[in-house]
Amino acid sequence: MLVSEMQTEIAWAAGIFDGEGSIFVSKATRPVKRGGRVSYQLVACVTMTHKETLERLASIFGNKVLLQGRRSKVWWKAAYAWRLGNPEDIRSFLTAIRPYSITKAVEIDLALEALVSWEPLTRQECRSGVSELQTSLRAGLYVDLREAKRVGV
User: b/e per residue, 28-63, with b = 16+ CB within 10 A?
Assistant: First the structure.
């Protein structure tokens, strides 16, 4: 059976993501003087010290590789991160790697299910916040992903 080169790359990416990646919902609360609302953003990322691996991932699925903060100890290697925050980019990436994923399969399924109803932000929503329904959906995914990681499903 011949496997296309792209399928091989996607399977490789799934393995990297299963071992080193993370899917999470970032939760941010604005101060009361700025509206006091909570916002949620879905993120898929891989963080590691081997920059070339992340550059290969970025060449397949797009985006950049960034230096991840500062080293706490001088003998620690620099860490790099590849992140996706755009819902469409995340959907494309997770859909591509899902058939090959084992470790993160449940988390990927939760994220893909939520992304069906995930509406992109309009300019107005960036300032005023998303609808209550969208906030509820995003808060639910935040809890579900945390629970999936805690239980280790």
Answer: eeeeeeeeeeebbebebbbbbeebebbebbbeebeb
- Are 84 and 118 a contacting pair, CB within 8 Å? no
Q: Which two tokens stand for residue 38?
A: 């909570």
| pLDDT for residue 1 | 46
| Cα–Cα distance for residue pair 61/99, rounded to 1 Å | 16
For residue 39, give Cα distances in angstroms to 75, 93, 114, 137, 152. Answer: 37, 23, 16, 11, 26
pTM over 0.90: no
Q: How far apart are CA 111 and CA 131, in angstroms?
A: 19
